[in-house]
Amino acid sequence: xxxxxxxxxxxxxxxxxxxxxxxxxxxxxxxxxxxxxxxxxxxxxxxxxxxxxxxxxxxxxxxxxxxxxxxxxxxxxxxxxxxxxxxxxxxxxxxxxxxxxxxxxxxxxxxxxxxxxxxxxxxxxxxxxxx
Length: 131
Fold this sequence. Notes:
Elements: H1 2-43, H2 51-82, H3 86-121
Helix pairs in contact: 1-2, 2-3
């Protein structure tokens, strides 16, 4: 019986460490997304409104946010394996809904950007978007 408690506490420690690691990666993704989005914005010398640039900036940051939410979702899944509390499950559901909505709207933005690029180039064969 004592060995089971020892295993449970060891598993709890591993899960806590894994949760912390995934949350740290999530925070790093948000910060990297901010940096990459600012870099993209600074590449353009004209500071006038451009719909194509605006869509690229939104997509760039949105992709990083989606990645951060994936890691956050993983951290919450780990937390629910050890102690499935109501507030943890609600948080897990909220993150899953936010992630789904973000991915949906990112896909709409990507389709809009593709249509803009297609209209600008007049061709179906477009070069890949530079990161």
